[in-house]
C-alpha cells in the first residue's frame, strides 16, 4: 500500500510539473506572437524568437535552426551561438566592429568585419583577406558566394560624396586617421574643384582647410591630375575564390553597397545606400536603391546619384551650391539606373531572396528599411520580374519594429529579421489556411529532469514524515 501511494504521488507530481511547464511555454509562445500588433500581408504571422541582444549587427542561421549572431559586449565584438533549445554561448571572439556579414560556408563561418574577411573554424579566427579600406564612414559590408563559386565582397566608401570634411571629423574617424580618404579602384582624373572649411585639426578657430576630391583632409587637388587606382578600393564590389587573396574588381562607383544576392540564373542584385545632404559636398534628394549589376558596371559615384548627374537641380541643397563633377572622363554618361528607389538614403539593410514555395513570394527580394527623417521602418517585398513593390510588414500606431537591418531566409523557407533597435530576431512563417491541430510544444530535457528531481524530493520528504 505504501509503495502504491508513493507511485501515485510520483505520477501526480510529474503530471503537475509537466502541465506547469506546458503552461509556461504556451504563455511564452503567445507573448512572442506579435502578428496582431503589425500590418502584415495575409497568410503570415510574426514571432519574436530571440531577444536581449547587445548591439547586434549581423546573423546567420544553420540547417539545424541554430543562430550565429554578432554582438558588441563592452569592448568585445563576439559571435554568440543561440541554440534551438534556448541555450546560448559565446562561439568565438576577436573581431573588429562592425561585423557586417556572417556567412555559413561548408562547415565553417566566413565573417566580414572592419577591414577584414575572416574564416572561423574550430572556434578560431583566421584572417583570409586584410587591408580593406574601411576606416571611413563605411566598412566592408555583405559577403556572398555566387553561383560561379566566387566570394563577393561589398566595400563601402570612406566619405559621403568623395571629399573628406567636417562630417567625417564629427563621426570620429578623421582625427584617428587624418590621412585616410577614398581610394578609387581604377585611375581617376580630377576636375580640380576644392572645398573650403574650418580646420578642426588645429587649435586655431580661424584656421581654414582646403580639400580636394580623393585627397586627404586639407590637401588640394589640381585640374586633370590623375589619381592612380588602388586594389582594394572604396565604393566597389570585389570577388575572389575562398582561400585566395587575389581580388578581382566586379563593379565600382557604388557609394555604399550593403549586400549582394544572386538568382538561380546567376543574376546579381545589390542594395545600395545613396548620397546624403551633409559634408563639404552635400547632395540633396539622395535615395537608397536596388540595382541589377553586371561585371564591369560603373554606377556613377561620386558624380551620379541613382543614374543621374548630380549637376541636376534636384540635387542642389537649399543652403549649398549646386554640386559639380569632381572627376572627369567618366566611363559613361549613362550609368545603369536602379530597378527601384526608396525615399531617403541610409535606410536600406541586408536583403535576401525567397526561394521556397513553403514561404511563397518566390523570386521576391525581402528588404529591411529602417526609419528615416520622414519614413517609417518596414519590410518590403520586391517582385523583380513584375517590378512590383509591396509593404510586407509595417507598424501600426505602436512602433513595434524599430531598426530592421537584415532579412535572411533559412533553407526550409522561414524568414528571419534582425531588429537592431529592439535587440531581437523575428521569425516570419506562412500560416496554413486550415490548421485545427495544436502545434507540438518542445520541452527542453533540463525541464523534465528538474521535474523528476522535484518529484523525488517530495517523495523523500513524505518518507521522512512517515518514519517520524
From TrEMBL:
It comes from the Bacteria. The keyword Membrane applies. The keyword Transmembrane applies. The chain crosses the membrane at residues 441-462. Keywords: Membrane, Transmembrane, Transmembrane helix. InterPro entries: 6-blade_b-propeller_TolB-like, Quinoprot_gluc/sorb_DH_b-prop. PANTHER family: LARGE, MULTIFUNCTIONAL SECRETED PROTEIN, LARGE, MULTIFUNCTIONAL SECRETED PROTEIN-RELATED. This is Glucose / Sorbosone dehydrogenase. It comes from Caloramator proteoclasticus DSM 10124.
